[in-house]
Amino acid sequence: MRIQLLYFDECPSWQVADARLREALAAVGNTTDVERVLVTTAEAAESWGFHGSPSVLVDGEDPFAEPGAPVGLSCRLYRTPAGVSGSPTVGQLVEVLARG
What we know:
It is built from 3 helices and 5 strands. It is an alpha+beta fold.
């Protein structure tokens, strides 16, 4: 399993997502290293299919992307059980990682 965390520095939520992702990996017993990818240009955002910071890719796919979501350098929001957040919850990440 390949896991990448795409982000850009202007959105601090990537740090929360990074911590939650590490917690979720530990919860499912997955020792995969997370590759952090800094996205800095509109061209790179387009190339990655970057739906905003932070984005988690599992084997090259964004499991949280909504159909038709725009790509670009923006802060991303996630729908969580507790409401809108700048990062998926640990539980949401565990659910995605357990599929792999």
